[in-house]
C-alpha cells in the first residue's frame, strides 16, 4: 500500500491563507474583491470553513483521510463540473440530445435570442468558449472580461472588468462566472426543476452521497418556471452561495467520473458524455467540458498525463487519475503549494 504520510503532512503545513470564518476578516476571504464595483460583494450566503482536509481512494476504496473529511464546506468552482454532469443527465433523458445544438433553438426567451447569442451552443458553454454577452440575474458578463486564472497560459487583454471585443462563439476561451451562471439558468429551464434536486436525485443519492449537501443560490436569483418560483444556482461561490459538500462525497463523485459515469451496475451519466468531458477544447487544450486537463503536464508536472481535475478557489481540488485508478481530494490548500502536494501523492502512487 502506498505511504501518503509525507503528502498529508505537507498539505497540513500549507493551508490557504484565508480566515476560516469569512466574518473574521472579510477582505482576506473569497475572490470577489477583485471585481469592479458595485460587483465586488457577496450576493449569497457563505459560512465558516474547516481546516485542511482530504481523502485518497485507490481502486474504489478509501486508503487515506485527514482533517474533517465529512464536513460539508464550500467548494467554489468544483460546482462547474457538477453542471457538466447535470448536462449529461439531461442528455441521457433526451432533454439535451445534441450538445452542438444552439441553446436559443430549444430555449427561446431566456437570453440567447440576439444575433450574437443565437450562435451559442451547449458545447460552447461547457467549454467556456461561448462569448455569451448580456446580464444574468443582475450581473453583466463584462465583470469577468480579462479574468486571469492560474492555469490559463493566455495573458489578459486588459484590466479585469474592462470591456474587450467579443469574438465569434467557439473561437475564444475565457473563464467567466457570469456565463457559467447563465448556463446554469439554461439548465434550470431545460429540467424545469431546481438543479440541486436533480443533482441529488440523479447523482448523489445513487452513489451514497449527499449528507449535509447544499447548493444555494444568490438571495435575489429567483425566476418563475411553470408558474413556480424557483431559485437559480451559481456554478461556484465567486459571489457567495454555491455548493457545500464533504471531501468524501467529492471523492464519490470523482469515482463516478473515473468509472465512466457508472455506479453499482447503473449508468448514471452516459459513458460517452464522461469521455467527452475529458477531451481538450480546440482553442484551450488544457480544458475539457468544465474540467481541467493535464495532457501536456502543464497543470501539474508530476501528475500523470491522463489526469483530469475539478478545481475551486481556496485551494479545492479533485484529482482523477485513471493511470493509477486513484481519486484524490484536497481541500483548503495554499494554491502556491498545491504542486508540492500533488508531487508527493504522485510519488507515493508510483512507489
Automatic annotation (TrEMBL):
<dbReference type="Pfam" id="PF00144">
    <property type="entry name" value="Beta-lactamase"/>
</dbReference>
<dbReference type="InterPro" id="IPR001466">
    <property type="entry name" value="Beta-lactam-related"/>
</dbReference>
<keyword id="KW-0378">Hydrolase</keyword>
<dbReference type="InterPro" id="IPR012338">
    <property type="entry name" value="Beta-lactam/transpept-like"/>
</dbReference>
<protein>
    <submittedName>
        <fullName>Serine hydrolase</fullName>
    </submittedName>
</protein>
<dbReference type="GO" id="GO:0016787">
    <property type="term" value="F:hydrolase activity"/>
</dbReference>
<feature type="domain" description="Beta-lactamase-related">
    <location>
        <begin position="51"/>
        <end position="330"/>
    </location>
</feature>
<dbReference type="InterPro" id="IPR050789">
    <property type="entry name" value="Diverse_Enzym_Activities"/>
</dbReference>
<feature type="region of interest" description="Disordered">
    <location>
        <begin position="16"/>
        <end position="45"/>
    </location>
</feature>
Amino acid at each position: 500500500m502506498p505511504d501518503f504520510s509525507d503528502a498529508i503532512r505537507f498539505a497540513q503545513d500549507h493551508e490557504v491563507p484565508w480566515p476560516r470564518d469569512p466574518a473574521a476578516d472579510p477582505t482576506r476571504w473569497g475572490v470577489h474583491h477583485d471585481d469592479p464595483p458595485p460587483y465586488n460583494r457577496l450576493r449569497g450566503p457563505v459560512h465558516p470553513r474547516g481546516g485542511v482536509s482530504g481523502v485518497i481512494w485507490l481502486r474504489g476504496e478509501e486508503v487515506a483521510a485527514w482533517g474533517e473529511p465529512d464536513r460539508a464546506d464550500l467548494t467554489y468552482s468544483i460546482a462547474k463540473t457538477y453542471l457538466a454532469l447535470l448536462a449529461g443527465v439531461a442528455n441521457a433523458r433526451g432533454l439535451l440530445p445534441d450538445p452542438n445544438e444552439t441553446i436559443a433553438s430549444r430555449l427561446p426567451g431566456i437570453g440567447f435570442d440576439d444575433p450574437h447569442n443565437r450562435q451559442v451552443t451547449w458545447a460552447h458553454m461547457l467549454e467556456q468558449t461561448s462569448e455569451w454577452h448580456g446580464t444574468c440575474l443582475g450581473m453583466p458578463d463584462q465583470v469577468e472580461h480579462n479574468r486571469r486564472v492560474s492555469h490559463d497560459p493566455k495573458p489578459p487583454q486588459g484590466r479585469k472588468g474592462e470591456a474587450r471585443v467579443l469574438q465569434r462563439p467557439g473561437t475564444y476561451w475565457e473563464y467567466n462566472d457570469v456565463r457559467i451562471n447563465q448556463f446554469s439558468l439554461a439548465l434550470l429551464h431545460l429540467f424545469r426543476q431546481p438543479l440541486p434536486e436533480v443533482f441529488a436525485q440523479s447523482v448523489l443519492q445513487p452513489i451514497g452521497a449527499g449528507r449535509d449537501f447544499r447548493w444555494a443560490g444568490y438571495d435575489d436569483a429567483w425566476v418563475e418556471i411553470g408558474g413556480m418560483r424557483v431559485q437559480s444556482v451559481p456554478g461556484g461561490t465567486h459571489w457567495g452561495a454555491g455548493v457545500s459538500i464533504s471531501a468524501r462525497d467529492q471523492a464519490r463523485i470523482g469515482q463516478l467520473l473515473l468509472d465512466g459515469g457508472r455506479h453499482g451496475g447503473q449508468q448514471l451519466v452516459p459513458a460517452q458524455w464522461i469521455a467527452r468531458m475529458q477531451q481538450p477544447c480546440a482553442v484551450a487544450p488544457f480544458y475539457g467540458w468544465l474540467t481541467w486537463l493535464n495532457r501536456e503536464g502543464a497543470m501539474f508536472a508530476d501528475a500523470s498525463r491522463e489526469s483530469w481535475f475539478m478545481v475551486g478557489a481556496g485551494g479545492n481540488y479533485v484529482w482523477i487519475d485513471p493511470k493509477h485508478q486513484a481519486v484524490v481530494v484536497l481541500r483548503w490548500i495554499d494554491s502556491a503549494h498545491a504542486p508540492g502536494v500533488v508531487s508527493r501523492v504522485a510519488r507515493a502512487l508510483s512507489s
